[in-house]
Amino acid sequence: NHAEHPFMQTKGVKANDVTPMEKLLAGVSGATNCAFVNQPGQGEALCGGCTAIALFNQANQAPGFGGGFKSGLRGGTPVTTFVRGIDLRSTVLLNVLTLPRLQKQFPNESHTENQPTWIKPIKSNESIPASSIGFVRGLFWQPAHIELCDPIGIGKCSCCGQESNLRYTGFLKEKFTFTV
C-alpha cells in the first residue's frame, strides 16, 4: 500500500462505516445461496496480493456496489475473451499486447489522460469524454472512491491461504458522481 498513491484507491475517503473486504470479492457474499459455492470467511483478512487482485477485479469485472456507485468502463458484467493456443505458453503469448500493436491501435494516445485514477483521481461531478481516457487510465479505471483501512498483523490470508505480514480486513467507500 503506497503512502501517496495506493493502488486503485483514493486517499482521504470519508465514510461513516468500514466495509468488510468480502464486498470486494464479487459473488463471494451477499446472497443467501453463496455458502453452497464459497466457504464462509473467504474475505475475512486478505494479504496484499489478494487485496490488489480484488481491487482490480472489483473495478473491472464486477457490478458497482449499488446505491449510487458506478460500474467499470466496460459495464456491470463485462466478458473478457482470450485467444487459446495449443499450450499454455502460446496462449499467454497470443494474449500479450505488444507496444507496436498498441501504437497502431491507439495512435493518438499522447492526446489522452493516461495517469491511473489513483494518481489523478476522478473529481466529483466531473464530465469525462470517453475519447480523453488513455489506455493505461482505462485499463486501471477505478469508478469508486475506495481506501483500505490500516492492515492487521501477521496471519494466514483467508483467500489464498498463504502466511502474510499484513492483512486487510476492511475499506472505506464514498459515493460521488461523474459522467463518461
From TrEMBL:
Tell me the organism.
Escherichia coli
Origin: domain of life: Bacteria
What Pfam families does this protein's entry cite? CRISPR_Cse1
Q: Which protein is depicted?
A: Type I-E CRISPR-associated protein Cse1/CasA
NCBIfam families membership: casA_cse1
InterPro entries the UniProt entry points to: CRISPR-assoc_prot_Cse1 (IPR013381)
